[in-house]
Each structure stands twice: as structure tokens, then as C-alpha cells.
Design a protein that fits this description.
CATH topology of the largest domain: Rossmann fold
Helix content: 40-55%
Radius of gyration: 22 Å
CATH class of the largest domain: Alpha Beta
Bound molecules: beta-D-fucofuranose
Oligomer: single chain
CATH architecture of the largest domain: 3-Layer(aba) Sandwich
Order of helices and strands: HHEHEHEHEEHEHEHEHEHEHEEH
């Protein structure tokens, strides 16, 4: 009986040479200037505008060309946007993946085409793409911690207000998944609190307002609204007022992002607590690009520092909020 031939590792590597060669990160040459893609997910809020501006400002400062696309809230368009950057042979792609699964294949396509990808602000499902293999690194906030910080503040400052409505971000977006997990896990350990309903408001002001309106009608006993971003919190403030209640007093409002408009509402007492999510990515993003070209090894995640805004600190922080 003939034994099946066993291939040594090197023979396997020879046979599958191209495949193996493709599954390592492409190198980036040290050059005086680069053409850099930035695939933005949408531009419908101050957070996104601040992020885009920070990227544009830094590119300009360094004399790099920024190939900018805006997916306008469409995951399918963002996939196409990345493919067009690959076709244009940009040097590097900065990607803010709208959802954590559908963008995984194009990250690999870019890598296979020899273009390093750096993920900005939103992550890809770690079972589908790996830092150090498929993309260089993820730069952004610790979203689980953001959710935990909101819950920790609530546990300390609730004053008997324990019936929560949660407005989730875009379904399938890593900050929505993680801000929910971080918050819900802390709440689960504090049995006096109850999450009455948790529904997506798509990170958008008007959707947040509509969802909050419906949920407030369904749950008149609600006295806390936790929104995964400022825009939905601002929408919720309108919904609370439309329901004849006082935001910040009858119903506590908590959010994440820290844009000027929301911080001003903390100053005015309509929102009670905001955890910042820093959108100013430009300096860190381009520093990472340059470091990568020089051979620096990066960890899977580079975490931005985030402040917070309480009724006590909001006034002092307002001037420097984006
Ligand atoms: O909170 C939100 C934006 O991905 C961290 O997306 C970001 C979130 C941010 O549209 O306002």
C-alpha cells in the first residue's frame, strides 16, 4: 500500500507560494510624499466632520495627497470606494469601516494588492480580519470602556432613576456593539437598574428622536436615556420635550462623543453626562503611516485618550470641544 506523500513545510510553501506571500502585510516604502486613501463612512454629524477635517489638515501639513471618499451611510458604497482606491493604487488606505463584517473582504483585497490598510475609529470583527496580518493596526477609542464609564456614572448619580431606554448606534458597527456591551454588563451587575428597551437609532439625530418618541410612549416609566452618540441624545432631548417632560431632570440623558452642541447641553442641564470619543485622528494616523514605513511594529490597537463632561466640568471643557 502506498503511503500518501507528506509535504514538508518548505515544499508546501513552494507549492502555495503566492498564497503565503500574500498573507503578510505589504511593506511601505519611505518616501517624501504619499497618496493616501481615506474611506469615510458618512458625514452627517459633527464627529465625522471633525474627523475628516483632522485627516485633511494633517495631509495638507505634510504635503500628502488625500484621496477622500464618503460612503454616505452606505456599507455597499464603502466597499466600492475601497475597491476604487485599490484600482488607483494609493500607497495606504485609512478605513473607518461602517460595519464590522462586510468590509473584511476588501481589507484583504487591499492587502493582496500590496496596499497596507490602517483602520480608523471603527474596527472589523476580529474573527474575520487580523491586525498585523490583514491590516496594520486599529486606531481609535476603547468603546467598551466608554459604555462602562457611562454606566459607572449612572450607578453613582442615578438618585433613584433606574428605568433605562438605550438608543443603539448603527447595527453591526463596532462602537455600537461595544458601547452596548460595556454599558449593559455594568448595569447587569446592579440589579436595581432595568433596561426597558434597547433599539437602534443609527447614530442619527432624527432617527434617534423618532425611536425615543416611540419608546417613551411604550414605556412611560422610563427615566434614563442612554444614547450611543450625541446626535441620538440630542434627538432624545427633543423627544422628551415633545412628551412634556424635562430632559436632564425628569429623564436623565447620557451620551458618548463630546461634540460642542452636546457639551453645551450638559452646561444647560439638558444632558447629564457625556463621555468623549476623540475624533481628531490626523496626527496619530499619519505618524503611524510614517512609522510603519520605517519598520515600526504596532500593537493590534492604538487607543485614543477620551475625556468626559460632567455638570461640574462641562463649562471648562466647552471651549476645546469639537
Ligand atoms: O460616536 C458617531 C459616529 O465610529 C466612533 O460614529 C464613531 C461613531 C461616533 O458617527 O458619532
Amino acid at each position: 500500500m502506498k503511503r500518501p506523500m507528506k509535504l514538508g513545510l518548505s515544499a508546501l510553501a513552494l507549492l502555495t507560494g503566492t498564497v503565503l506571500a500574500q498573507s503578510v502585510l505589504p511593506k511601505l516604502a519611505v518616501k517624501p510624499t504619499y497618496r493616501v486613501g481615506f474611506a469615510q463612512t458618512e458625514s452627517n454629524n459633527p464627529w465625522r466632520l471633525a474627523q475628516t477635517k483632522s485627516m485633511q489638515d494633517e495631509a495638507k501639513k505634510l504635503g500628502y495627497t488625500l484621496v477622500y471618499t464618503d460612503a454616505g451611510g452606505s456599507t455597499a458604497k464603502q466597499v466600492t470606494d475601497v475597491r476604487s482606491m485599490i484600482a488607483q493604487k494609493v500607497d495606504v488606505i485609512f478605513l473607518s469601516p461602517r460595519e464590522d463584517k462586510p468590509l473584511a473582504p476588501v481589507v484583504k483585497e487591499a492587502r493582496n494588492a500590496g496596499i497596507p490598510v490602517i483602520l480608523l475609529d471603527r474596527n472589523i470583527d476580529p474573527t474575520l480580519s487580523k491586525a498585523g496580518t490583514d491590516y496594520v493596526t486599529f486606531i481609535g477609542s476603547d468603546f467598551i470602556k466608554e459604555g462602562q464609564r457611562v454606566a459607572d456614572w449612572l450607578v453613582k448619580n442615578a438618585n433613584g432613576k433606574t428605568n433605562i431606554i438605550e438608543l443603539e448606534g448603527t447595527t453591526g458597527a463596532s462602537p455600537a456593539n461595544d458601547r452596548k456591551k460595556g454599558f449593559d454588563d455594568v448595569i447587569a451587575k446592579n440589579s436595581q437598574f432595568k433596561i426597558l428597551a434597547s433599539q437602534t437609532g443609527n447614530f442619527a439625530r432624527d432617527t434617534g428622536r423618532q425611536v425615543a418618541e416611540t419608546l417613551l410612549q411604550a414605556h412611560p416609566e422610563a427615566n434614563v436615556i442612554y444614547a450611543h452618540n450625541d446626535e441620538m441624545a440630542i434627538g432624545a432631548v427633543s423627544a422628551i420635550e415633545a412628551a412634556g417632560k424635562v430632559p436632564g431632570k425628569d429623564i436623565l440623558v447620557l451620551s458618548i462623543d463630546g461634540g460642542k452642541e452636546a457639551v453645551k447641553m450638559v452646561v444647560d442641564g439638558k444632558i447629564n453626562y457625556v463621555v468623549e470619543c476623540n475624533p481628531r485622528f490626523g496626527p496619530e494616523a499619519f505618524k503611524t503611516l510614517q512609522g510603519y514605513a520605517k519598520g515600526t511594529k504596532y500593537p493590534a490597537k492604538i487607543i485614543n485618550a477620551d475625556r468626559d463632561y460632567t455638570p461640574e466640568s462641562a463649562k471648562a471643557g466647552l471651549a476645546s470641544a469639537y
